[in-house]
């Protein structure tokens, strides 16, 4: 496999709560929130790594750190093998020309006071990539690439005149117009109707085939991850619990949480307009109050005493496949019907 183009290396992100007046008076402050805990992920050129998990799993935090919108409490971001974690000024600007982000909400991603053409020309001007005389042509070319036609009409339109699907295509165009090598896509189809999601996903796949761009695709939907990704990483409460090739992870999942996510994927229905978010038994623990041992044990149907006492390492369970479970081999072989024995 090729050398990773972007790496998240042992990331840790801790948010200290801002104590309110009552907390200050009582002397009781909220515990810190651990949004990322020893997260390591590799993105390979021209491939897609999907990061999947429930709300609060830390997947968006990982994406924001990957684009240096946030700086980790510990750990590193590596681009082509070089540590870029502390970049500032011109070097940071140059990095962001190579690593762009597509946000979840297309309605918030664009300035309502600018036309589509102005919004797309803005990053070209900011990074000095196209002379003023060539901006219009570059914008039209990009609108054609994201299948918005007639491109001239869309270039002169304002965001309020367009549908959600059209706005998301424009958000994709805005991220890609400066030809980045990596794009972090944070739930880019979750706010769109089912009828237009597949079109946007196919567009992104087609652009990847044509340009070789690398995606980090963040989603709560395991079926979307399977369709989009070469590899999938499953996160829970700030940690990666399983990671591997997409089809291998789906067919031979080695962590009970992954197995539950697979079971929770709803069926496609033509009448559906929204895909239901993941619903699993029990309530996820808070990132501010992680349980001892394995962080998933309070919800795990296979939990044994060792799970409450010792955190399992993220260890190999097959070729390029890792899982953090004391009973990964049993889960991989028998699924949630695994008969595990308590281990001291």
UniProtKB/TrEMBL annotation:
<feature type="domain" description="ABC transporter">
    <location>
        <begin position="6"/>
        <end position="262"/>
    </location>
</feature>
<dbReference type="Pfam" id="PF08352">
    <property type="entry name" value="oligo_HPY"/>
</dbReference>
<keyword id="KW-0813">Transport</keyword>
<comment type="similarity">
    <text>Belongs to the ABC transporter superfamily.</text>
</comment>
<dbReference type="GO" id="GO:0016887">
    <property type="term" value="F:ATP hydrolysis activity"/>
</dbReference>
<dbReference type="InterPro" id="IPR017871">
    <property type="entry name" value="ABC_transporter-like_CS"/>
</dbReference>
<dbReference type="InterPro" id="IPR050319">
    <property type="entry name" value="ABC_transp_ATP-bind"/>
</dbReference>
<dbReference type="Pfam" id="PF00005">
    <property type="entry name" value="ABC_tran"/>
</dbReference>
<keyword id="KW-0547">Nucleotide-binding</keyword>
<protein>
    <submittedName>
        <fullName>Probable ABC transporter ATP-binding protein</fullName>
    </submittedName>
</protein>
<dbReference type="InterPro" id="IPR003593">
    <property type="entry name" value="AAA+_ATPase"/>
</dbReference>
<dbReference type="InterPro" id="IPR013563">
    <property type="entry name" value="Oligopep_ABC_C"/>
</dbReference>
<dbReference type="GO" id="GO:0005524">
    <property type="term" value="F:ATP binding"/>
</dbReference>
<dbReference type="InterPro" id="IPR003439">
    <property type="entry name" value="ABC_transporter-like_ATP-bd"/>
</dbReference>
<dbReference type="InterPro" id="IPR027417">
    <property type="entry name" value="P-loop_NTPase"/>
</dbReference>
<dbReference type="GO" id="GO:0055085">
    <property type="term" value="P:transmembrane transport"/>
</dbReference>
<keyword id="KW-0067">ATP-binding</keyword>
<dbReference type="GO" id="GO:0005886">
    <property type="term" value="C:plasma membrane"/>
</dbReference>
<dbReference type="GO" id="GO:0015833">
    <property type="term" value="P:peptide transport"/>
</dbReference>
